[in-house]
C-alpha cells in the first residue's frame, strides 16, 4: 500500500540514519586516532625541518641541517647497527621459531594448546623483567659463567654481558613468541595431504619444502618477521640494559635527543628514519608476499 | 619393531627442538624466581631460603605507589578503549570497505612505540598539557583501542547479520538493537579485547616513559629505575609476583576462550 513518494522518503531517511549511525560508531574512534596518533606523527615530521632553540624548544626557521646531520658517519653508523641487530634478531627468530612452530603443529591435539600457552606465557611477563633476567644469567658472576666454570669448560669468567650478542639474545628472548605464533597459525592450516601428494609425484623433501610448504606459510613468516623486526629496531631498553652503553641503537639516540640533549628537531629526524625503515620493510614484505602467493597459485 | 623405530626417528628431532626452545624461554624465568627466595644479599649466589625480599618489597612505597598508578591507568584505558574499539569495529564492519580506513584504525598497534611516545610528548608540550596519569591513560587508549578493534572485527566476520535485521523488522530501534543484539553477541570478543588491553597497559613502558608525570610513575617505570640501578633480589621478588599474576591471567583467559574455539 505504500505510495512511491513515501518509499522514497523512507529510503532517504534510512540513508540519513545510516550516515548518523556510521558517525556515532566510527566518529569517536577515528577522532581519537587522529588526535593521539596522526597529529603526534605529523608534529614529529614538522619539527624535523626546524631548528633547535638555545635552551631546547623549537625555533620556527626552516633548515635541512637536521637531515644532513643524520648522514654524519656517527649517526649513520648507529642506524646501520640498529638495522643489523634487528635483522640478525629476526633471522635467528625465524631459525628457532620455524622448527618450533612446526614441531608444535605436529604434536597431538591436547598437547598443542598446552605448548601454545607455554609459548605465550613469558610474553605476558613485563618486558623489563625479562630483559633483566639476562643480566643475572650473563653477568661475570652470573649463572652461565658459574655453570661453565663448574664443568671446567672455562677457567676465567667470560664477558658475556654488555656485548652486541647480549643485545641480540635479549631482543630474541623478548620477541620470539611473536614469531612462533603466526608461524604456527599458518603451518597448522597446511593440508598434510599436500605433502603426500608431492612425495607421490616424486618431489624430494627439500623440493617439497621450498616449493610447497614455504610459499604456503609465507604469510605467517612475514607477519612474524614484522612483529619481531619493528619492535627490535626501535628498542632502547635492551641495548641500555644488556649492551651497557657500548651498543647504541637508534632508539637510544631518539630517547636522548628528546630527554637529555633536548634537540627535538634532530630527534624527530631520527624518528622519521625509523618510520621510513619500517615502511621500506613493509614494502619488501609486501613484494615477497605477492611473489610467494603467485608462486603458490601456479 | 620397524614402525616404532620409524616414528621415533621422525619425532625425536622435533622433540629436541621443542625442548631447546622451552629451555631458552623458561630458564631465565625460573632462575629469576629461584633467586627471589635467596637468603643472602648476593643477587647471583643462592644461599639459604627466605621470604625477606618479599617483605622488603611490601614495605617499598615506590613499588606500592607505582602499582596503584598502573592499576588506575590500566582500568581507565581498558574501559575507554573497549567502548571506542567496539564501536569502531562495528562501524567499520557495517560501512567501510576502504582498506585505507581499515588500516588507519589498526595503525596505532603497528607504529613503533618510541615514535608514538615522542610524538605524544611533542603534542602534550605544544598544548601545554601538564603530564600526569591521564596523559599516560589517553596514550594507552590509542594503541589498546587498535587491539580491541582487531579482536572484535575478527569476531564480527562470523556473526549473523540477519539477527540484527530481524530485530529491526520487529520494530526495535537501532540503539536498542545494538545494545540488546549486537553487543551480547560480541561479548566474548569484547571481553577478550578488554583483557588484552588491560594486560598491554599493565606492562607498557616506552609510551608511559615519555608521557608520564614526574610524580606519577607507573609500575614499569619504577621497575626501570630499579633495574637501572643494578641487580637486587627485591626485583626478583617483584618479578616472581608479577609473573604469578600474569600466568594466572593467561590460564583464566585460556579457559574463557576455549568454548568459542571449539565452535
Give a brief description.
Chain A has 298 residues and is mainly alpha-helical.
Order of helices and strands of chain A: HEEHHHHHHHHHHHH
Domain module tally of chain B: 1
Helix-strand pattern of chain B, N to C?
Answer: HHHHHHHHHHH
Please tell me the CATH architecture of the largest domain in chain A by its name.
Orthogonal Bundle
Q: Average pLDDT across residues of chain B?
A: 85
- CATH homologous superfamily classification of the largest domain in chain A: MetI-like
- CATH domain fold name of the largest domain in chain A: MetI-like fold
The count of strands of chain B amounts to 0
| First-to-last CA distance of chain B | 40 Å
The number of helical elements of chain B comes to 11
Q: Give the helix proportion of chain A (percent range).
A: over 70%
CATH superfamily of chain B: MetI-like
Largest sheet of chain A: 2 strands, antiparallel
Amino acid at each position: 500500500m505504500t505510495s512511491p513518494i513515501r518509499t522514497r522518503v523512507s529510503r532517504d531517511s534510512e540513508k540519513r540514519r545510516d550516515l548518523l549511525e556510521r558517525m556515532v560508531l566510527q566518529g569517536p574512534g577515528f577522532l581519537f586516532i587522529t588526535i593521539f596518533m596522526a597529529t603526534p606523527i605529523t608534529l614529529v615530521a614538522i619539527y624535523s625541518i626546524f631548528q633547535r632553540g638555545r635552551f631546547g624548544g623549537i625555533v620556527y626557521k626552516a633548515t635541512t641541517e637536521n637531515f644532513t646531520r643524520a648522514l654524519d658517519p656517527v649517526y649513520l653508523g648507529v642506524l646501520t647497527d640498529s638495522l643489523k641487530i634487528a635483522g640478525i634478531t629476526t633471522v635467528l627468530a625465524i631459525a628457532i621459531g620455524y622448527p618450533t612452530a612446526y614441531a608444535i603443529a605436529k604434536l597431538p591435539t591436547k598437547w598443542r594448546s598446552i605448548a601454545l600457552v607455554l609459548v605465550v606465557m613469558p610474553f605476558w611477563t613485563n618486558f623489563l623483567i625479562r630483559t633483566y633476567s639476562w643480566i643475572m644469567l650473563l653477568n661475570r658472576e652470573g649463572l652461565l659463567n658459574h655453570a661453565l666454570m663448574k664443568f671446567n669448560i672455562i677457567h676465567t669468567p667470560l664477558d658475556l654481558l654488555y656485548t652486541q650478542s647480549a643485545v641480540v639474545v635479549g631482543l630474541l628472548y623478548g620477541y620470539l613468541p611473536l614469531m612462533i605464533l603466526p608461524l604456527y597459525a599458518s603451518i597448522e592450516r597446511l593440508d598434510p595431504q599436500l605433502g603426500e601428494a608431492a612425495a607421490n609425484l616424486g618431489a624430494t623433501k627439500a623440493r617439497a619444502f621450498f616449493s610447497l610448504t614455504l610459499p604456503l606459510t609465507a604469510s605467517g613468516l612475514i607477519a612474524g618477521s614484522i612483529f619481531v623486526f619493528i619492535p627490535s629496531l626501535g628498542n632502547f631498553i635492551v641495548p641500555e640494559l644488556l649492551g651497557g652503553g657500548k651498543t647504541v641503537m637508534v632508539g637510544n639516540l631518539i630517547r636522548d635527543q628528546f630527554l637529555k640533549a633536548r634537540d627535538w628537531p634532530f630527534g624527530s629526524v631520527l624518528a622519521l628514519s625509523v618510520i621510513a625503515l619500517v615502511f621500506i620493510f613493509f614494502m619488501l614484505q609486501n613484494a615477497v608476499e605477492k611473489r610467494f602467493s603467485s608462486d603458490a597459485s601456479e | 619393531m620397524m614402525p616404532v623405530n620409524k616414528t621415533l626417528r621422525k619425532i625425536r628431532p622435533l622433540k629436541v627442538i621443542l625442548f631447546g626452545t622451552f629451555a631458552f624461554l623458561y630458564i631465565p624465568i625460573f632462575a629469576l624466581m629461584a633467586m627471589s627466595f635467596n637468603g643472602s644479599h648476593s643477587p647471583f649466589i643462592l644461599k639459604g631460603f627466605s621470604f625477606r625480599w618479599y617483605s622488603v618489597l611490601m614495605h617499598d612505597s615506590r613499588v606500592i605507589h607505582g602499582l596503584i598508578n598502573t592499576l588506575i591507568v590500566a582500568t581507565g584505558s581498558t574501559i575507554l578503549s573497549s567502548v571506542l574499539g567496539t564501536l569502531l569495529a562495528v562501524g567499520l564492519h557495517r560501512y567501510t570497505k576502504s582498506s585505507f580506513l581499515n588500516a588507519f584504525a589498526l595503525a596505532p598497534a603497528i607504529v613503533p612505540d618510541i615514535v608514538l611516545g615522542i610524538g605524544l610528548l611533542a603534542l602534550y608540550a605544544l598544548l601545554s598539557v601538564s603530564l600526569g596519569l591521564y596523559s599516560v591513560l589517553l596514550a594507552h587508549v590509542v594503541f589498546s583501542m587498535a587491539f580491541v578493534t582487531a579482536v572484535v572485527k575478527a569476531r564480527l566476520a562470523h556473526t549473523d547479520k540477519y539477527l540484527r535485521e530481524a530485530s529491526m523488522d520487529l520494530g526495535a530501534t537501532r540503539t536498542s538493537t545494538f545494545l540488546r543484539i549486537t553487543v551480547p553477541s560480541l561479548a566474548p570478543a569484547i571481553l577478550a579485547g578488554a583483557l588484552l588491553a588491560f594486560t598491554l597497559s599493565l606492562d607498557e613502558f616506552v609510551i608511559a616513559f615519555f608521557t608520564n608525570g614526574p610524580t606519577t610513575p607507573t609500575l614499569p617505570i619504577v621497575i626501570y629505575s630499579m633495574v637501572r640501578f643494578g641487580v637486587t633480589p627485591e626485583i626478583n621478588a617483584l618479578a616472581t609476583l608479577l609473573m604469578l599474576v600474569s600466568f594466572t591471567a593467561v590460564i583464566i583467559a585460556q579457559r574463557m576462550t576455549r568454548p568459542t574455539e571449539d565452535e
